[in-house]
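User: My collaborator sent over this chain with a note saying "see what the structure looks like." That's all I know about it. Can you take a look?
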Amino acid sequence: MLRRARGGLAAFLIAIACLSGAAHASTATGKINRVYVMGNGVAMFHLDHPPRTGLPACATGLPTRWAFNAATPEGQAKLSLVLTAYSSGREMVVHGLDACPDWGDTESVNFMYTL
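Assistant: Without extra context I'll predict from the sequence alone. Here is the result:
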């Protein structure tokens, strides 16, 4: 019986460890004040209202900067939303991926929306 309880506890702790990464992803709200696209297709933008919650360890660049790959259909949709929000002056809510795969020192966007 005790062995079964330990196995259940171990499975529970592993599940919590797997879910903990999502809890550290950044979230921020603000207006976009700068947009740029790099030569490799990565788009980056800055929000004007730091701080953001849960900045991941890889995000050692500017704390207001976010990145995504604009060379994909999903990235093109994100770029369209970013440019629309920028040109209209609307605030955005951005949720991070808790990783920096698109630009090594900048957290990538998981999802975002306008307010």
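A starting point for your reply to your collaborator: Residues 2-23 form the longest helix (22 residues).
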